[in-house]
Amino acid sequence: MSATTLRSRSVARRQPEIYTLSGCVGGRNASPPLVTLSGMPGTNCRQVGLSLAAMLGVSVHEPEALLAVSLEEKEQSRGKEDSKAGRLEKWVRVLLPGFADGKHRGWERYLPLVKAVLDVVPTGGVILGEGCHLILGSQKVFRVRVEASEGFCARRVAQADGVALDEALVLVREAAERRERLLRQLRDHFPTERACHDLIFSAERYAPEQMARLAKRAMETGGFGV
User: Fold this and answer.
1) Interhelix angle for 84-95 vs 111-118, to 10°?
2) In this predicted structure, what is the pLDDT of residue 4?
3) What structural domains does the chain harbor?
4) Mean of the pLDDT values across residues 34-59?
5) Is 22 exposed, middle or buried (0-12, 13-18, 19+ CB in 10 A)?
């Protein structure tokens, strides 16, 4: 056997690995596309996510559903002597540098949501919802935001939900306030330098299908596993 062959096999064995909360390990080049997508009510953010996921061949995930599954798993495993909580905390410390470092009290309550979001990493997908781009700060994830003016969002909500424009405006403002509170909390508990979005769209200019196509093109150009 030649020295070149031996060196090739040695390099292959030392391929970089990715550790996830599901315990999966794989080469970095094998990572499936992973996207976070957020937007205010009335921006058609969900339609963008569905279209983009279909183009990428991955699933759509929503934080509420992810958290429900995570909490159900936690309840089912209660009483088992497998130190699952300890392993989860260890994984979080490895995957999120700077998180749970003792400076951010109360971070333990985020563990179920952290696990739910990070469990998407091995299979890839489009994650809909606010703040997930902060939770995934240490992962190779494409971060997309859809924005629009308050009035535009209110008109869309009024039309979709069949409510008066004044009521829709209140709903939009309440959603904006909830978003700001959530992001402040997550920035405190998930310190990361990768807090910005990679791509921001105006829902007033682009239709959902257009945004999805442009996002996919940007992912291809940026090398995001498409």
Assistant:
1) 70
2) 43
3) 29-222 (3.40.50.300)
4) 94
5) middle
Greater pLDDT, 5 or 52? 52
| 3-state DSSP of the chain | CCHHHHHHHHHHHCCCCEECCCCCEECHHHCCCEEEEEECCCCCHHHHHHHHHHHHCCCEECHHHHHHHHHHHHHHCCCCCCCHHHHHHHHHHHHCCCCCCCCCCCHHHHHHHHHHHHCCCCCCEEEECCCHHHHCCCCCCEEEEEECCHHHHHHHHHHHHCCCHHHHHHHHHHHHHHHHHHHHHHHHHCCCCCCCCCEEEECCCCCHHHHHHHHHHHHHHHCCCC
The end-to-end CA distance of the chain, in Å, is 37
Residues 146 and 203: beta-carbon distance below 8 Å: yes
d(CA 41, CA 131): 15
* Average pLDDT over every residue of 206-215: 97
Calpha distance 158→176 (Å, rounded): 16
pLDDT score of 73:
54
What's the number of CA atoms in the CB half-sphere (13 Å) around residue 180? 6
